[in-house]
Design a protein that fits this description.
With 99 residues, this protein is an alpha+beta fold. It is built from three helices and four strands. The chain has one domain: Alpha-Beta Plaits, CATH 3.30.70.930. The longest helix is centred in the middle third of the chain and has 16 residues. This is Thiamine-binding protein.
């Protein structure tokens, strides 16, 4: 399973509207999970089995909850049993068509 998610507090803690400290706490959870992952400006994508991926998302939400009483979570999943390494393989297949 690949799961792209975005988690952030619904209110900013910084005067400039930034939520980066809270988001960094969520990204730290993902990095500590040991699952393959990629973080971009808008989403973090993780790869693994359903239960382990969802456990990481819950921990990431809990980490952000420490910064604000209300949290926003957006998720999109590609559920394809029997396939691993898709975090990079999907992009490689597209790049092959662009070469």
């Amino acid at each position: 399973m690949l799961l792209a998610f975005s988690v952030a507090p619904t209110t900013a803690q910084a005067d400039d509207g930034s939520v980066s400290e809270a988001v960094a706490a969520a990204v730290a959870v993902v990095r500590a999970s040991g699952l393959p992952h990629e973080t971009t400006a808008m989403f973090t994508t993780i790869e693994g089995e359903w239960d382990e991926v969802m456990a990481v998302v819950k921990k990431a939400v809990d980490a952000v909850s420490a910064y604000a009483p209300r949290v926003s979570l957006v998720m999109k999943a590609d559920i394809r049993p029997g396939y691993t390494g898709q975090l990079t393989a999907k992009v490689d297949r597209i790049d092959k068509h662009l070469s």
